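User: I'm putting together a small comparison set for a docking exercise, and I want a reference complex before I start. The sequence is below, and the ligand is manganese (II) ion. Could you produce the 3D structure with the ligand included, as structure tokens?
Assistant: Of course. I'll restate your input first, then give the structure tokens for the complex.
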Amino acid sequence: MAFTMHMKASGSSLRASSSATRSRKALSIRAAYIQKAEYVWSDGQEGQPIKGMKFNELRSKTKTLETDHGLDPSAYPDWSFDGSSTGQAEGSNSDCILKPVRVVIDPIRGAPHVLVMCEVYTADGNPHPTNTRAKLREVIDDKVKAAVPWFGLEQEYTMMSKTTGKVFGWPEGGYPAPQGPFYCGIGAESAFGRPLAEAHLEACMKAGLNISGINSEVLPGQWEYQIGPVGPLELGDEVHLSRWLLHRLGEDFGIVATFHPKPVKGDWNGTGAHTNYSTLEMRSPGGMDAILAAVDRLSKCHPEHISQYGVGNEERLTGKHETCDINTFRHGVADRGSSIRIPLPVMLKGYGYLEDRRPAANVDPYVVARLLIKNTLK
Ligand code: ADP
Ligand code: MN
Ligand code: MN
Ligand code: MN
Ligand code: MN
């Protein structure tokens, strides 16, 4: 009897709440939001230096939605933002448009919440001048598609303490031991900031990004993760989303991840974004001829690449610290002082891929992919 009473009571309260929902709807007040969509875009500024750190160029804001829109970007509505606050428009005509292009699970909020990578458009419906993804789309014609280009980007970054503004884990008012034991190092004296690097790896995997690994780097407090191999648009989308996750998780750890090409002056490694690149031909037996042909073409447009491979890259490409001097183009097998390296296993096999070692960590991945495609396949 008591049980029946209870059923009746809860049944009537359900009816009451659904009629309340109806009356809210009648008043045009939406009732239940179940999905958070974080719209992410680039402001195209490559970051402004401040106190040795660099602001990253990513921006984002949250939209709540009444239904689960899934992972198809076309299911998500366009949105707008105030371009005058991001350096992308004048105050008098400030609306910019966000067009969703890639959706992944938000690993921090969890499903059904998502991250939505967007392209930026102007109010008149054209790609915004900062929209480098649109410029990449333009070079991807049938010939490029048939070549099946793949990219793998090694994203290095340096962890800075939010409180001290110094590299995370470095002794107060001093320096750690000289470089040597830190690359792929293990132990509290060698690896600074691993909890963030681990949390970031986990987040990228949960989001379904093609993250292929992580390692600690030569400069203590510097780390790397790799995205790839993936196609050109996927590369840019996933590098941006993975950078967003790194910055977002850094908020929780009190760590600012900087992509500054030379975060510490002097005898310390800079921070790069080696980009590994191949076509179907390069990846097939006998592909070394295609790799060398691509290297030859790239040798003829070195300045064009250098001018777009990251602000401040001249501080990093000095000819020291595993780099080639910025004004020199050199390629070599297993040579970490070259502009383009052909990995030893690739040489031994006779096919595979090449590694462009020139891009700085703050490079725009859509730009690297466009330049490599344009200058090797067109
Ligand atoms: P390194 O030896 O320079 O540190 P990593 O192992 O860090 O190289 O990174 C190599 C990257 O190259 C990875 O992201 C990997 O996915 C990518 N890669 C592997 N094979 C190819 C290929 N055929 N084309 C493009 N990228 C590739
Ligand atoms: Mn406002
Ligand atoms: Mn690497
Ligand atoms: Mn590295
Ligand atoms: Mn490398």
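The chain has nine helices and 15 strands. Residues 35-130 form a domain with the Ubiquitin-like (UB roll) fold (CATH 3.10.20.70).
User: Thanks, that's exactly what I needed.
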